[in-house]
Each structure stands twice: as C-alpha cells, then as structure tokens.
Specification:
With 408 residues, the protein is of the alpha+beta class. It has 18 helices and 20 strands.
Amino acid sequence: MTDRRPFEIVAGFMPLLDSAVLVAAKEKGFAAGEGVDLTLVRETSWANIRDRMAVGHFQVAHMLAPMPIAANLGLTPFAAKTIAPIALGLGGNAITVSVALWERMLAHDAKSDLNPATAGKALRATIAERKAGDGAIRFAVVHPFSSHNYELRYWLAACGIDLENDIEIVFVPPPLMADALAAGTIDGYCVGEPWNTAAAKAALGHIVTVKAALWRASPEKVLGVAAQWAERDPDALAALLRSLCRSAQWCASPQNHRELADMLSARAFVDRSADWIMHGLSGMLDVGGGEIRRVEDFFVPFAQAAMFPWKSHALWFYSQMVRWGQVEHTPENAAIARETYRPDIYRSALMALGVAFPSANAKVEGALTTPTPVGSMGASLTLGPDGFFDGALFDPDRLDAYIEAQKR
C-alpha cells in the first residue's frame, strides 16, 4: 500500500473553549505526528459551518452534537450526509441571565449555587410576576439543533415554565451573546465558554446554572465528518482521530491548562483573554460580581470516555427534536439518528493507541450516581456520575416510551 501522507484536511471551527482539542491537535503537532496537514478555519456562525460542510469547503468540522443528526434527517438547508465518529469532550456550556433579571430572581430566593432546580423555581416566580404586562422573557441559544436549545428547554419545562407563553427563544452566534445582553435585546442565553464569562466579567450578566448540573457527562460538540469523504479516505480520517485522541489527553492535564489557555486566546482562535478561558478549563467559574464557584466536570476533554460517540447521546438529542416538533418520530428517523454516531469507526481508528473503549455502544443516561468501573476494551474505564438534574433516566431501548412520556 502506498503511504499517501501527509493527509490534507480542512476543518471549520467556532471560537469556543471546546475547540481546544482541534486547536491543540494542530498547534502542538499531534496532527502532524499522524501525517495530517490540518488547516483550521475560524467561522462566525454555526450556519456557516453547516453550509461550508455541505458545499465541500470542509472535510470535517467542530460541530454542535445534534447538527449531524439534523443534517441526516433532512432538517437543514444544504444538508449533506454527515457522521460523528468522535466527540470533542463533555460539558462546557452554561446559562446566563442579565443582571436585571438576576436581581428580580434574587427577590424569589435565587442563589448563586448553580443549582438548576433552585434557579428554575426563582425564574418561574419572576415570570409569574412579569405576566402583569412585561411580556415573555427572551432567551438566546446558538442554533435550533444544539444541545443549548434542548438543555435550556429541558430545564425550563422541568421547572414548570410554559415555553409556549412565557418564553421566547431566539438564535444568536456565540461571540455576540454578551453584546445582545448589553443591548437589551435578550434577557439571557445558553452558550459555551468563554461567552458566559464574558458577561460576568463585564457585569452584564450572572451565570445561573451549567450543563454539568443539567445533564452531567453529556456531549457538547462532536467532529462532524462529511460521509462521502470518510468513505473515500478512511486512512486520513483514522489518522485525524488518533491525533485528536492524543490532543485530548494533553488538553485534559491541568499542568497544560495555562499553555492551552494562552494558545486559545490568540486572535486566530478564540481571541479573548487567557484568564477568561482558564475559568472554563479549571471549572472555577466567575458567576458574576467576582464570585467564584467550583463546578465538577465543567469541561471534560478525555476522562470518562469523553470522546466516545455514544448512540444513547444521539438518541436523546433525537428525542428532543421530536419533543419540540422538529421531526416526526418514526422507526426510520430513529434509525437515522442512531446510525449518525459511529462508535465502530472510533474503535477501529483508536485501537492501536491502547486507550479504553466502552464495550457497549449505548447506555442508560442518568443511571450512574457515582464513578463506576464498567466493561471496556483496552485500558480500564470508569464512567459517571452522569444524569439529569431532575433524576430522570433515558433508556435508549425504551425510546418510544420516553418520547410518549414527554407529551404529558
């Protein structure tokens, strides 16, 4: 076999903390070490990422975890078949409200502990107060097919807030969130770091809860891969996946966090203060007013099989697409969602590295309340805790029942 290296690969990315694995793969030489000539292209919106994948400008992209599923279900314009053979970490986002809204929530016993239930109860009471004439509260998320959209909705609904009448949800690119809050065009938002820290540092907003509290150990971004390219060039894809795995191991080490923050702060990447980025890397969040809160597992690049593309994750996102009327639930659509995530490619590409693989392709989300050793291939593996803040379970083998229960 002829060695075709270097493999030339162009990847789109957004300026976010969780682009770290891609950026470090390029900047620390992990891609080059696998024979990959990786070009990174910073984009300004997720819609641009989607469109440039569809027209062939990118072979791969830093992508919202539900986006490849939506593309394969035909829910987006210029939809190109996309697979997700690796995740780019767990966690990394938060929900921030304006200072004005936070002050009103404080009057209803809101606390700075990032507890979703406490914050939701205070927000519900605030909304009831606003009904006298202030209209709906407007939140922004980054894209219709994003974990931000589904987790915000899940939180609000579980706290008894009427999404039809009390909340308006709009779409804003991540770097513009704090500016939208400053302009008064939105009351709050859900976005990845460092764009929550941006509002806290500028005294524009207060972080009320985090993804790690809403659905712990859940994916935020994946590597979206053009399916035709993956079929045509599996060796290039496997080399890239190996480099991302090595990069994630490096990103996960606390001793590398300052170097990583400095790297991400460059104009070509996130283009914001390294000190802001350190909050997300360390899990020591500035929630507002200089108050620091420690968040366990705020952003997990490698531990707990953080890069494994669980089919249960894909099916939970699908269940939320059904819940919020984006797609009809059919066996065919569920199969498309399930097959978008490709643990088979992950295992095949990374087998030689000796890293731990789960032996299963799916798990019951929310079943692990403590760190738990699980069956694995390669090295030993511990998962969890995981799960939803309201104690719910998602069993992918009981998808129909889960979707039916959400209608009530």
